[in-house]
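A favour between colleagues. Tell me how you read the following sequence-structure pair.

===
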Amino acid sequence: MNKKTIIIAGFAGAALGGCIQVKAPERPIEINLNVKVQQEVVVRLQRDAQDLIQNNPELFPQ
């Protein structure tokens, strides 16, 4: 790098230094994590019921 490039980079950095501001929000950040797990539970119950029926056919005659 030559001296001219270093000087230009220094001026550019000084000019942009005042433009960037980091400020904390006034209110806390709220993350809503309402996730439905109903489908997974239903699938597990269906599998358990199917296994119970297959393993005990005398309890569930057709």
Remarks:
- The chain has two helices and no strands.
